[in-house]
Amino acid sequence: MCDTCGCGEGTTTIQTPGEAREHAKMHAEGIEHSHNHDHEHDHDHNHSHGHSHDHGNSHTTTIDVETDVLRENNLLAERNRGIFETRKIFALNLVSSPGSGKTTLLEKTVEALRDDVSIAVIEGDQQSMQDADRIDKTGVDVVQVNTGKGCHLDAKMVNDAIQKLELPDESILMIENVGNLVCPSLFDLGEHHKVVIISVTEGQDKPVKYPTMFAESSVCVINKIDLLPYVDFDVEACKDYARQVNPDLTFFELSATTSEGMDAWLEWVKPAGND
Ligand SMILES: Nc1nc2c(ncn2[C@@H]2O[C@H](COP(=O)(O)OP(=O)(O)OP(=O)(O)O)[C@@H](O)[C@H]2O)c(=O)[nH]1
Ligand SMILES: [Zn+2]
Ligand SMILES: [Zn+2]
After folding, report:
1. 106-144 burial string, b = 16+ CB within 10 Å, else e?
2. Which end of the chain is more exposed for a tag (fewer CB within 10 A), N or C?
3. How confident is the model at residue 273 (pLDDT cuts 50, 70, 90)?
């Protein structure tokens, strides 16, 4: 649950493209089956009152709940980190606003590296198997986490998805978070690095408007550089803004569609390229 934005809890589904196809077939052929709901159903009542509420106190309860949610998440993130460390799995958490090109970058990255190293992908979106189906076509293992009303992945979802993926030792795990520049920054998944992706169509001032995401990330990919001749986006100004928030950021400027600039990124992703 995210108290910052009030997004929902308990509506998560985790499935592979194969399972999703099987499930769709059951519906198409009218085969009887049950659905697991790990959440309560919405109740049909409203909360209008003929009076206003008087808050004679501060909102410490809300803050406590949020602290507890994050504390529980951090414990599970530690568990994930332990798995990644003992099994030498290099885990990256790709974060950005919707449509910056995370899935395209993932497709190109796994296509380039899959012959040299085992790679698996966890896809996070509120709904649909679209991104998992795209990754499935590249031939690497992928699990889709649908967060329902939730706007970010949390450590438990990643832990559940890891069990489904059966990751080999010494592999790379790439996690595509839900497209959202705010909430995913608050949730540690146990990953080695958050990689924030900004595309040149979004405006160069994003790092100062959404500073937490850039502060929490170690890498910043500036994507869609093939569009620079057509948009008003100053790459150096964007980097300056980002460095104001996080002086230690490593930058890659690339185009996931034309592959310009991809080599430097691929060198970095390969575990040998990291410390
Ligand atoms: N011109 C250009 N278009 C790109 C590039 N990378 C991605 N796109 C396009 O941008 C759109 C969104 O790309 P996706 O890879 O689906 O973006 P995403 O970040 O995964 O989107 P969400 O999962 O919805 O958050 C698609 O139409 C892509 O073809 C790029 O480097 N250059
Ligand atoms: Zn949220
Ligand atoms: Zn995507």
Report:
1. bbbbbebbeeebbbbbbbbbbeebebbebbbebebbbbb
2. C
3. very low
